[in-house]
Q: What sequence folds into this?
């Protein structure tokens, strides 16, 4: 499967079992594969950013962060697939293409996020990564540990 930045995917349970990080969002909800993930391809590493339909919950969090810090880069609310979604950059994590279960399909077509929103997500993700490099970690998971696990898997495969 050709994985592309800006499309939505679902991830296999194997990833969650392998990584075993309690800060990762659950992969199932009411027996369905959830959530859908926006993907940023970075060489052999894929960054998965979960989407949530719980917009009101996350809007309250955004409002609190903006009131306290003047800005919120870790959660965005945008229209994707014709409905509002919370884009949870704070819950992003690295993985590999072998852990992708399938691309998200709506009306028989793969779901691609429009370029303006795709660019905004990538920009905010890059801001969060730069903040992390400067000692301000806005990610819930240990992305360094998970990324190293993924890179170790690549080395074993070679």
A:
């Amino acid at each position: 499967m050709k994985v592309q930045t800006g499309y939505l995917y679902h991830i296999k349970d194997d990833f969650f079992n392998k990584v075993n990080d309690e800060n990762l969002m659950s992969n199932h909800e009411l027996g369905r594969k959830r959530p859908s993930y926006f993907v940023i391809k970075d060489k052999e590493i894929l960054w998965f950013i979960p989407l949530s339909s719980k917009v009101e919950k996350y809007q309250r969090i955004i409002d609190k962060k903006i009131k306290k810090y003047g800005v919120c880069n870790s959660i965005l609310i945008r229209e994707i697939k014709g409905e509002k979604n919370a884009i949870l950059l704070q819950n992003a994590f690295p993985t590999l293409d072998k852990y992708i279960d399938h691309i998200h399909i709506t009306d028989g077509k793969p779901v691609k996020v429009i370029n303006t929103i795709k660019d905004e997500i990538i920009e905010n993700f890059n801001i969060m990564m730069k903040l992390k490099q400067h000692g301000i970690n806005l990610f819930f998971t240990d992305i360094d540990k998970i990324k190293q696990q993924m890179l170790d898997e690549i080395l074993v495969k070679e």
About this structure: Residues 115-133 form the longest helix (19 residues). The longest strand covers residues 45-52. Residues 8-157 form a domain with the Thiol Ester Dehydrase; Chain A fold (CATH 3.10.129.130).
